[in-house]
Design a protein that fits this description.
Shape: globular
Radius of gyration: 17 Å
Distance between the termini: 27 Å
Helix content: under 10%
Structural class: mainly beta
Oligomer: single chain
Number of helices: 2
């Protein structure tokens, strides 16, 4: 199936091919009390597309649940994998080298997008990627506005062998989409993808929610995002 995406920044058309575009209807829920109880009621979406099986066949179990309250987006990632570590100690570090879950989103459904990359201890990498200009890293104020609740705590640790399960909740205010002027998620349609990786773990892996057709691992492919429809 072929889609044509108009890039606002470049004033030109981009043509690309993608496989089936997955879609999630993101419910609107006003949190009252325990977030965990809300997540328990929501459907789970698997991050299980192993797009490069010849080179990177390992597929840890990864999934997420998602909702919004208008002003904030709530995502909980669930992971079970082997041999984890937490070497990244600061935001805007090399998050992808640790056990990492990622949320990439294009508010206008074009080639401009944000990448939210979060380690198992809640260290965050966030930048704005316009189609025809250099990326812009988020400042400290924006980073601090994204709340992270990691089940493993926030302190670094050495390699832990064997199977481990962990989770992290990210609470992303609309203002964290800091170059898009988004004030509310209600009624919006955006494109996005969700990922699980760990480039420098004993067994590197690169999984996605929406499939990616590319000859080598690359998550920065907004033309192959799925769709989020916000209630």
């Amino acid at each position: 199936m072929e889609y044509r995406i108009f890039s606002i920044s470049s004033q030109r058309m981009e043509t690309f091919k993608t496989t089936d575009m997955k879609t999630i209807n993101v419910p609107k829920i006003t949190p009252a009390g325990d977030l965990e109880k809300i997540f328990e009621t929501l459907p789970e979406h698997a991050i299980d597309c192993c797009n490069w099986p010849a080179e990177f066949p390992y597929s840890p179990k990864a999934a997420f649940k998602i909702f919004h309250d208008g002003k904030k987006l709530y995502i909980k990632f669930y992971v079970t994998e082997n041999d984890i570590k937490a070497a990244v100690t600061e935001d805007q570090g090399r998050t992808w080298t640790d056990p990492c879950v990622e949320f990439f989103v294009s508010p206008k459904g074009n080639l401009d997008y944000y990448n939210f990359e979060c380690t198992c201890t809640g260290k965050l990498l966030l930048a704005w990627h316009p189609a025809d200009a250099p990326k812009e890293a988020a400042g400290k104020e924006v980073l601090d506005s994204v709340e992270r609740i990691p089940s493993l705590g926030k302190e670094p640790f050495e390699l832990r062998e064997g199977e481990h399960s962990w989770s992290v909740i990210e609470i992303i205010p609309a203002t964290a989409l800091f170059r898009s002027g988004v004030e509310c998620f209600c009624g919006k349609e955006m494109t996005a993808n969700f990922y699980k990786c760990g480039d420098e773990l004993p067994t590197p892996h690169f999984l996605s929610w929406n499939p990616i057709e590319w000859p080598e691992p690359s998550f920065h492919r907004p033309e192959q995002f799925g769709k989020l429809i916000f209630e």
